């Protein structure tokens, strides 16, 4: 019934509605309860029946009409041709559709892997995500190097960053920078003081004196506020510098791991970097700079990089497949990724697996809030495909 067109459904509805007795027998044939209000109001829920029983064959309707000796409907159903799609291309064309990309396939079993947990107070779920990634690549080749690094922030760091964010809102000044505004206020203050001194030297003009005193009081209050903003801005700048130093110190372990790859590039053909991050407070600029700097020194190797949205500089690194995601969904995103790796690595190339990842995760995302949840930037010259490496046995 799901293949019946709107016109056919409408024709059957009109004919059955015209004969209340036949309509009632139609319902009885299928064991359905007919509500009298439908014929009276000119409504017949055949479309609803189609939705409830979409896999019912058209022949069943014909059988119903034959049993009830509604031969006009039998003849009508004999003319009905269910709608269906059929392949319009040859097997050769189908093969071209399957591989719309002309780039050559390149197989990889020797992979250098970096997993970075960039979160607050690392928990068991995040560790399991990193361990699943390690298990997958170790199963491909037991000699694959997998470095798992935790940059989990402590509760103290969290509190520090929350305070920093609160103060950092002063970075936006809709009425101009506080330095410029303070200079204007000081000039206005000096002018008002001179005018007040002149007025104070004469006996006349008490109203003018009160007006000047009021204006001067308001200007002094604004001066105090601006000096407070400047002091706060100076603290923010110092805290930002402190944060950058903390970041640089915490990411040294990433440089150590990746420097080893750079010195031994002949041992692998592919690099995979996974940044598992749900930390929206922590600045990732230093982390991005560190990773991009090192990957640029491995220009000829295929590179797969997962990062939170906002990592723009990595798209300039050659031979890179960059997949970015929104941080709030980091953990379910990586869980889905590993499931696809485990199911598809023998039949799909890496790019196709990433496209499947995008298709399977989009249903859980509110596009009005997050737009394009997963972005894929592809600068690869080949289609990287994982290949299991058989263990070498000594004779």
Brief sketch in words of this structure:
The protein is an alpha/beta fold and 395 residues long. It has 16 helices and 8 strands.
Describe the structure.
This protein is an alpha/beta fold and 395 residues long. It folds into three domains: 6-78; 105-151 and 251-386, Rossmann fold (3-Layer(aba) Sandwich); 158-242, no CATH class. It is built from 16 helices and eight strands. The protein has helices at 6-17, 20-29, 37-40, 46-52, 58-67, 71-78, 91-98, 124-140, 155-168, 178-200, 206-250, 252-263, 285-295, 330-344, 350-361, 367-370, and strands spanning 105-108, 111-118, 145-150, 270-277, 302-308, 320-325, 375-378, 383-386. The chain has a six-stranded mixed β-sheet, sandwiched between helices. A two-stranded parallel sheet has the order 1-8. Strand 2, helix 8 and strand 3 (145-150) form a beta-alpha-beta unit. Helix 5 (58-67) packs antiparallel against helix 6, helix 8 packs parallel to helix 14 and helix 14 crosses helix 15. The radius of gyration is 35 Å and the shape is flat. The relative contact order is 0.10. Mean pLDDT is 80; it is low at 37-43 and 367-371.
């Amino acid at each position: 019934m799901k293949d019946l067109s709107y016109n056919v459904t409408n024709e059957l509805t009109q004919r059955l509605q015209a004969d209340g007795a036949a309509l009632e027998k139609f319902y009885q044939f299928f064991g359905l309860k007919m509500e009298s209000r439908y014929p009276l109001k000119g409504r017949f829920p055949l479309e609803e029946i189609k939705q409830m029983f979409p896999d019912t064959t058209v022949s069943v309707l014909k059988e119903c009409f034959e049993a009830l000796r509604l031969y006009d409907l039998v003849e009508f159903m004999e003319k009905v041709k269910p709608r269906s799609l059929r392949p319009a291309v040859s097997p050769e064309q189908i093969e071209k559709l399957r591989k719309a990309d002309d780039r050559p396939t390149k197989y990889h079993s020797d992979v250098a892997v970096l997993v970075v947990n960039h979160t607050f107070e690392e928990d068991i779920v995040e560790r399991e995500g990193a361990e699943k990634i390690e298990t997958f690549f170790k199963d491909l080749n037991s000699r694959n190097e997998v470095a798992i690094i935790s940059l989990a922030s402590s509760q103290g760091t969290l509190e520090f960053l929350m305070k920093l964010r609160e103060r950092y809102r002063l970075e936006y000044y809709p009425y101009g920078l506080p330095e410029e505004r303070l200079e204007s206020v000081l000039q206005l203050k000096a002018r008002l003081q001179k005018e007040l001194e002149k007025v104070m030297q004469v006996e006349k003009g008490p109203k003018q004196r009160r007006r000047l005193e009021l204006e001067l009081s308001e200007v002094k209050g604004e001066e105090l506020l601006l000096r407070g903003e400047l002091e706060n801005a100076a603290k923010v700048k110092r805290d930002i510098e402190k944060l950058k130093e903390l970041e640089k110190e915490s990411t040294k372990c990433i440089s150590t791991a990746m420097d080893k790859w750079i010195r031994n590039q002949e041992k692998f053909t592919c690099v995979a970097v996974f940044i598992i991050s749900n930390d929206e407070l922590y600045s990732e600029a230093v982390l991005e700079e560190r990773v991009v700097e090192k990957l640029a020194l491995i220009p000829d190797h295929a590179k797969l990089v997962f990062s939170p949205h906002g990592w723009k500089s990595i798209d300039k690194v050659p031979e890179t497949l960059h997949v970015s995601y929104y941080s709030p969904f980091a953990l379910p995103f990586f869980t889905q990724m590993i499931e696809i790796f485990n199911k598809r690595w023998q039949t799909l190339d890496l790019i196709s697996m990433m496209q499947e990842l995008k298709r399977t995760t989009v249903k859980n995302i509110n596009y009005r809030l997050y737009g394009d949840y997963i972005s894929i930037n592809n600068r690869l010259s080949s289609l990287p495909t994982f290949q299991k490496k058989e263990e070498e046995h000594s004779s």
